[in-house]
Design brief:
The protein is mainly α. 70% of the residues lie in helices and 5% in strands. The model has no long low-confidence stretch (mean pLDDT 93).
């Protein structure tokens, strides 16, 4: 594995630590509060990242194994609504997130340069594994901002 790939994988794995740092000192009330019935609580945001990690794992493997196949699509709101994440301990959700990230990191570490550039089809648009990788990191950043908005609405710093 190249040094650049190792650095990128370290950044990918660090997304979990960023989430943990942001939510570690929050009360159950803060973690389960929803800004509106159709909006997500912080626990639901983190559970969504676990769901997204599952889907991400399937997408990257489909690209490598089935070169160019359609991406797995899913209704994230329905997945979150059916997860009952607020009835789960945050520590359990975070353990799942860490496990999937670690397993995907092993997969990423075995990819050849050619495989990083392989593409899959996402609603008619070709996306490479490298793009998916960077997109996942951005996705976590987006949800960190969402967590921040929930905390701002609660008046928590």
């Amino acid at each position: 594995m190249s040094e650049t790939t190792r650095l990128h994988i370290d950044i990918y794995l660090a997304t979990s630590e960023l989430i943990k740092q942001r939510v570690s000192q929050l009360s159950r009330e803060h973690l389960e509060w929803k800004p509106a019935p159709e909006k997500w609580s912080i626990k639901e945001v983190v559970a969504h990242l676990v769901d997204a990690s599952f889907v991400h794992a399937i997408r990257i493997r489909k690209i490598v194994a089935e070169n160019g196949k359609e991406f797995l699509l899913y209704d994230q709101d329905a997945w979150v609504a059916s997860s009952r994440a607020n009835q789960t301990e945050l520590s359990d959700i975070l353990l799942a997130f860490d496990a999937i990230l670690a397993y995907n990191a092993l997969f990423y570490g075995r990819l050849t340069d050619e495989q990083w550039e392989r593409k899959g089809n996402n609603n008619g648009k070709e996306i490479s594994i490298a793009d998916l990788f960077q997109g996942f990191i951005r996705h976590v950043q987006t949800h960190l901002l969402q967590i921040g908005r929930n905390l701002d609405a609660l008046g928590v710093k």
